[in-house]
Amino acid sequence: MSKLKKVVVIGGTGLIGSKVVKLLEDANHEVVVASTRKGINAFTGEGLAQAVTGADAVIDVSNIMSFDKQALTEFFGNSSRNLTSAEKAAGVRHHVVLSIVNADGLAANPYMAGKLEQEETVAASGQPYTIVRATQFHEFLEALTDAYSADGAVKVPDIDFQPIAADDVAATLVEVALGAPKNGTIDLSGPERASFETFIRTYVGAKGDGRPVSADAGVNYFGAPVVTRSLVPTGNYIKGGITLAQWLET
Ligand SMILES: NC(=O)c1ccc[n+]([C@@H]2O[C@H](COP(=O)([O-])OP(=O)(O)OC[C@H]3O[C@@H](n4cnc5c(N)ncnc54)[C@H](OP(=O)(O)O)[C@@H]3O)[C@@H](O)[C@H]2O)c1
Fold it and tell me: In this predicted model, what pLDDT tens digit does every residue of 232-241 receive, in sequence order?
């Protein structure tokens, strides 16, 4: 067994963060669950210096809900600057951040612009890092279905899709954080690739939702124009094991 580590999870109360915290605690590592409701604020810097003291790694899975490009770039940029500065001052060995596959290619989408700002800030910080870019989570399918719904029907972009379960994302983040910094990017995706339409139809069907689902080449990804492989890895990637069917059964 590898030596026990101290790991700070920024956003440790969220969907991915709470799973990361549980995996680390189950393996007996020392974990700091960091979020604003725990008095630790990556955006303002409150409580960061103390939280990262003595830490081996920081995993940033923080998030805000916004559609405003300026708010998003400020949140992800300032938070990453504050985190990497505090980590450098404390001698933390590894900063791991969760981003999204092809964030740079989709930066016309305000959220992706925020994630790109986050990636660029981390990469320029001088702090040893690994960026893990995941595809959309199975847990995000409900929000996607609703976002692409109008007049009782669901119309999605006509592109490939390869979603991943949050449990697979959390497990990969823990493994990456306990390893050596890559000072680069790793892509992470689910085990199955099919059309966006196929996944949404399966999801809607499994929920007993009668809405018809179709694909339309004119539909974009929240403001970003897309091509067939915009949301899937195009090079090497880590493949999660949990299929949508398995996830739907849990
Ligand atoms: N949804 C997808 O399909 C998808 C795909 C790939 C990557 N991602 C990325 O996955 C990451 C995690 O997403 P998630 O769904 O797990 O997020 P989430 O459930 O919304 O959780 C967000 C976490 O961030 C914390 N937080 C917010 N503001 C903070 C601040 N100023 N300082 C410290 N903590 C703060 C929240 O806690 P408090 O409210 O207590 O602060 C919460 O713990 C995001 O960065 C997202 O971009 C998502």
Answer: 999 999 999 9
Domain chopping of the chain, boundaries:
6-137+163-191+233-241
Distances (CA, A) of 10 to 87, 97, 226: 12, 9, 31
Confidence of residue 1 (pLDDT cuts 50, 70, 90): very low
In the reported structure, the alpha carbon of residue 62 is separated from the centroid of ligand 1 by a whole-number distance in angstroms of 3
Q: What is the pTM of this model?
A: 0.98
Ligand 1 atom nearest the C-alpha of 62 is 24
* 116 CA to centre of ligand 1 in angstroms: 15
* 163 ligand 1 Cβ < 6 A: no
Determine whether the shortest distance from the Cβ of 64 to ligand 1 is under 6 A.
Answer: yes
The Cα 166–Cα 244 span in angstroms is 11
> By C-alpha distance, which of 138, 155, 157, 134 is closest to 207?
138
Ligand 1 close to Cβ of residue 140 (< 6 A) = yes
Token pair 């090497």 is found at 236
> Is the distance from the beta carbon of residue 43 to the nearest atom of ligand 1 less than 6 Å?
yes
The whole-angstrom separation of Cα 156 and Cα 170 is 27
Residue whose CA lies nearest to ligand 1 atom number 15: 15
Q: Give the span between the Cα atoms of 161 and 199, in whole angstroms.
A: 8
CATH number of this structure's domain 6-137+163-191+233-241, picked from the four choices 1.10.1130.10, 3.40.50.720, 3.60.21.10, 1.20.210.10: 3.40.50.720
- Res. 182 pLDDT band, cuts 50 70 90: very high
Report how far ligand 1's centroid is from the alpha carbon of 24 (Å): 18
Assign 2 a pLDDT band (cuts: 50, 70, 90): low
